[in-house]
Amino acid sequence: MYEPLPQAADGLGQYATMIGVVGGMDVVVRTEGDPASLAASLEKIVHQLDSLLVVSQVHTMDEIVTATESSRRFNTAILTAFAAIALGLSLLGIYGVLAYTVEQRTREIAIRMALGATRATVLLRTLRFAMNLAIAGVAAGLAASLGLMQFLKSLLYGVKPLDYGTIAGAVVVLLGCCAFAGLWPARRAASIDPMRTLRAE
What's the pLDDT tens digit per position in 109-164? Predict the structure, then answer.
């Protein structure tokens, strides 16, 4: 059925502007090939039907979806950037605390090694201290995220606030990064020469 748009608008009355009849018409064309290459063919067909019709503002559906999701993607990018900065600061903090602790406990570590503690034992003990800090931070972060669940729900797309796979992945990444940050001070603690340290004391 062919019906002029002004006639359809008159029949719809005040509902015409609500459903988008007045001012123009949107046509959606589905294609299996490249949609951008279809624009010229579509304009040619429309001109064959009526030379007075003008095809304007041709967009692909990907462009429309991207424009619709731009604000959400911007918010996600900002949150990702802040999360990366927070992760970097936390790793620097763990490294600094652990390096300071090793520096302060150099004599104690030397005595333990002189009494028979192996380098592997010192390494694991120092790493355990770093992991305890990381576990405490992860627990506090999980508690805070549960409290902010309603706020986070509006920013998530395709992910539930309590998606256990995502939470488990984040916890594994955090603990792995913290273990990496604590590895250098732990190796430094394990490389202490007990005789030289005690002689210096």
Answer: 888 778 888 888 888 888 888 888 888 888 998 888 887 777 777 766 666 767 78
With a CB cutoff of 8 Å and minimum separation 6, the contacts of 125 are none
Kindly report the pTM of this predicted structure: 0.56
| DSSP H helical ranges for the chain | 5-12, 15-18, 39-49, 61-68, 70-104, 106-114, 119-147, 149-153, 164-190, 194-200
**Domain spans of the chain?**
5-65, 70-200
CB 110 within 8 A of CB 177: no
The answer to whether the CB of 55 falls within 8 A of the CB of 48 is no
Maximum Cα interatomic distance, the chain, rounded to a whole number of Å: 101
